[in-house]
Design a protein that fits this description.
Layout lengths: L14 H28 L1 H5 L5 H32 L2 H21 L11 H29 L7 H9 L1 H19 L2 H8 L1 H18 L6 H8 L7 H8 L1 H10 L1 H19 L4 H10 L17 H29 L1 H16 L2 H5 L2 H20 L2 H7 L6 H18 L1 H11 L5 H20 L14
Helix pairs in contact: 1-3, 1-4, 1-5, 1-6, 1-7, 1-9, 1-13, 3-4, 3-5, 3-20, 4-5, 4-9, 5-6, 5-20, 6-15, 6-19, 7-15, 12-20, 12-22, 13-15, 13-18, 13-20, 13-21, 13-22, 15-16, 15-18, 16-18, 16-22, 21-22
Protein name: Putative proline/betaine transporter
Family: Belongs to the major facilitator superfamily. Metabolite:H+ Symporter (MHS) family (TC 2.A.1.6) family.
Organism: Glaciihabitans tibetensis
C-alpha cells in the first residue's frame, strides 16, 4: 500500500500579521518625524540655536529637519539593494533599528545651552537626524511591499493603505504626547527636559515593531523571484536601466502629496502659533528673555500651542478616515483616475489658503479638515501606486528611490520655502498656497503621462 504526501504549503503571513508589521513601522516613522517636526517649531530653535534671532533660529531648525530628507535617498539605495537581494523581512528589521536608535539618541542629546556643547549639540543633532533619514529611506517601501505583496487578488490598493494609515496614527500619538506634557509641565520644565520624553518613548514602539516583524516570513512575490533565480545582482543599476521612466514619473506623482503633507503639519503649526501682532510677540520674547527684532517679525494667527495642536489632531482624524476610504476607491476607479481627481482638488485647495486662514477659527478648522481629507485621498493609494510601477526584482529599490527623492523635492524644502514665502508676503499665505497649487500641477502632469497600474502582473514579473 503506497501513500503519498501532499506538498507542504509555503508558510504565509496572516492578514493580522501583515497589518501589524506594515502599520507599526510607518507609525513609528511618522511618530519620529512628527516628534522632531513639533520640537523643531516649539523648542529646538531656542535650545540648539540660542545665539540667533527668532526667525533665523526657526529657519536653522528647519534646515536640520531637512537633513533627514537628504539622507533618505541614500537610505533608499542601501536598504533597497538589500530588500531586493536578501528579502523584505530582514531589511525592514534593519531599517526600523536604524531609525529608532537615532530617535532615542536625539532624546539623550545635550543642548547648545550646555557649556562646551555650543558646537557639538547642533552638529550631533544633524548627525542623528541624518541617521533617522537613512532608516526612513528603506522603511516606507518595505512596509508597502510587505502589505501589497501579501494582498489577495484585487485588493492591493486596500492592503496598501495599511502602512499609509501609520501617518495619521503616528501624528496623533506624537502630538497627544506633546499635548499631555505641555498641559502637565510648566513651560520651564518642558523646555528643560519635557521635550525629551517623546523621543525616548519611541523605544517602546520600536520594541513592539521588532517583535512583530521578526515573526514574518518572506513575501510570496519575492520568494517566487528567489525560486526562479531571478534576483537582480545590482538592483540599482537594473532599475535605472529598465525603469528610468517610472523612477521619474513616480517621483513627481508623489510630489504634491509631500508638499501638502508638510504644509499641513509643520508650516500650519508655525503660522498658527506665531503672534498676530508685534506687540504680543515682543512681550512674549521679553518674558522668555529672548531678543526681539521688530523688523524681522511677520504676523501669524496667534493661537497658543495647545489650542493649535488640538485643532491639528482633529484634522488628522479625517486624514486617517480618508486614508481608509481611498483604498476601495482606488480599486474601483483605478489609481490614476482617482489620484488625478484628488490632485485637481489640491490645486483648488491651494488657492483657498488666504480666504480660509482669514475666516477666524471656523475658517482655519475648515482648512485643516479639507487639507487632511485631501491628504488621506492622495496618500492612501500611494502604497499600491508606486510599487506597482516596478518589476518585482527591483520593486523595493525603485519605489524607495521615487518615494524618497520626492521627499527632497517636496518635503525637505517645503517648510523652509513656506516660511520664506510667508515672510516675503509679510504675513500673508497667498504665496504658500500658490506653491502648493503649482506642485500639484506638476503631479497632475506626471499622472497623465503614466499608465494605470491596477491590473499589472505583480507577482514574479522581473526586469
Amino acid at each position: 500500500m503506497s501513500t503519498s504526501t501532499a506538498p507542504t504549503a509555503a508558510p504565509a503571513n496572516t492578514r493580522g500579521r501583515v497589518i501589524g508589521a506594515s502599520l507599526i513601522g510607518t507609525s513609528i516613522e511618522f511618530y519620529d518625524f512628527y516628534v522632531y517636526a513639533t520640537a523643531a517649531v516649539l523648542v529646538f530653535p531656542a535650545l540648539f540655536f540660542p545665539s540667533q534671532n527668532e526667525a533665523s533660529a526657526l529657519l536653522s531648525s528647519f534646515a536640520v529637519f531637512g537633513a533627514a530628507f537628504v539622507a533618505r535617498p541614500i537610505g533608499s539605495i542601501v536598504f533597497g539593494h538589500f530588500g531586493d537581494k536578501i528579502g523584505r523581512k530582514g531589511t525592514l528589521v534593519a531599517s526600523l533599528l536604524t531609525m529608532g536608535i537615532a530617535t532615542v539618541l536625539i532624546g539623550c542629546l545635550p543642548t547648545a545651552l550646555t557649556p562646551g556643547w555650543e558646537f557639538w549639540a547642533p552638529a550631533l543633532l544633524v548627525l542623528f537626524r541624518f541617521c533617522q533619514g537613512l532608516g526612513l529611506g528603506g522603511e516606507w517601501s518595505g512596509a508597502a511591499l510587505l502589505a501589497t505583496e501579501n494582498a489577495p487578488a484585487g485588493k492591493r490598493a486596500i492592503y496598501g493603505t495599511f502602512p499609509q494609515l501609520g501617518a495619521p496614527i503616528g501624528f496623533i500619538i506624537a502630538n497627544v504626547v506633546f499635548l499631555v506634557l505641555s498641559l502637565n509641565l510648566a513651560p520651564e520644565a518642558f523646555q528643560a527636559w519635557g521635550w525629551r520624553v517623546p523621543f525616548l518613548a519611541s523605544a517602546i514602539l520600536v520594541i513592539i515593531g521588532l517583535y512583530i516583524r521578526l515573526k514574518l516570513v518572506e513575501t510570496p512575490a519575492f520568494q517566487k523571484v528567489v525560486d526562479k533565480g531571478e534576483v537582480a545582482k545590482l538592483p540599482l543599476a537594473r532599475v535605472f536601466k529598465s525603469s528610468w521612466r517610472e523612477l521619474i514619473l513616480g517621483t513627481f506623482i508623489m510630489l504634491a502629496t509631500y508638499v501638502l503633507f508638510y504644509l499641513m503639519t509643520t508650516f500650519t503649526l508655525t503660522y498658527g502659533t506665531t503672534a498676530s501682532d508685534s506687540d504680543t510677540a515682543a512681550a512674549a520674547a521679553e518674558a522668555a528673555g529672548k531678543p526681539f527684532n521688530a523688523d524681522a517679525f511677520v504676523p501669524g494667527l496667534g493661537y497658543t500651542r495647545n489650542e493649535f495642536l488640538i485643532m491639528l489632531i482633529i484634522g488628522v482624524v479625517f486624514f486617517g478616515i480618508f486614508t481608509l476610504v481611498s483604498g476601495p476607491l482606488a480599486e474601483k476607479y483605478g489609481r490614476r483616475k482617482m489620484l488625478s481627481w484628488t490632485t485637481i482638488g489640491i490645486i483648488i485647495f491651494g488657492l483657498l489658503f488666504v480666504p480660509l486662514f482669514g475666516a477666524g477659527q471656523v475658517g482655519v478648522m475648515t482648512l485643516l479638515i479639507l487639507g487632511f481629507i485631501l491628504m488621506g485621498l492622495t496618500f492612501g493609494p500611494m502604497g499600491a501606486q508606486l510599487p506597482e510601477l516596478f518589476p518585482t526584482n527591483v520593486r523595493y529599490t525603485g519605489s524607495a528611490i521615487s518615494y524618497n527623492v520626492a521627499s527632497i523635492l517636496g518635503a525637505a524644502v517645503a517648510p523652509f520655502i513656506a516660511v520664506a514665502l510667508w515672510q516675503a508676503a509679510e504675513g500673508s499665505t497667498w504665496l504658500v498656497g500658490l506653491y502648493l497649487s503649482l506642485s500639484a500641477v506638476i503631479t497632475l502632469v506626471a499622472l497623465r503621462l503614466s499608465k494605470e497600474t491596477k491590473d499589472v502582473n505583480y507577482e514574479g514579473n522581473v526586469s
